[in-house]
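S.,

Sequence below, as promised.
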Amino acid sequence: MEQRYEFNKSLDTLTQEIIIMGSLVEKNITRAIDALANQSLEIMKEVIETENTIDQMELDIEKNCISLLATQQPMAKDLRKIGAALKIITDLERMGDYAENIAKVTKRIGDEELIKPLIDIPHMAQLTQGMVHYALDAYVKENKEQAYQLGENDDKVDHLHNQVFRELLVLMMENPSTINQATQLLFVSRSLERIADHATNIGERVIFLVSGERVKIND
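The prediction came back faster than expected:
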């Protein structure tokens, strides 16, 4: 009984570490767009510093997972929980990379006047940040119905990405001088779309954790 208590305590700690890592990723998505919208190199540097912390957390959590696998030899759902954690931290780390890449666009654009008001891109960022939060909440609650609902917002992000792509393509065709900045903004939109994909990945991990089923939320 004592051994089981300690194991459960370790699993709870693992979950809390993932939530902390996820909250840093959420914050960085928002700050990356703030850096771009305000053309702030200071905020960009904050994003990069936080990404270093996220990278370290991935390594630390991975080490904890491997230790639990080696020392506890978990079976069934406990094994799936640790396996899901290993996959989730990889998704979170990749989201962090995308957020950092978005922030770095701030430096590449510099103090150029933005070629269009940032409306759809911040909306995409809000949706993707919400998806990360929702996916992690589903993980904590082990709620597969909630995980399935991530597909709806992923569709919305995809729609906005396509809209941004079309608008920027028109701008580039009408005015070739916008090509450099438009390309950078397309890169931002694509990065947000990829973050949303990773959030749906977490949803799929949750479904596997709860039911043992491997599914695709969005094909």
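The domain at 2-211 is CATH 1.20.58.220 (Methane Monooxygenase Hydroxylase; Chain G, domain 1).

Coffee later?
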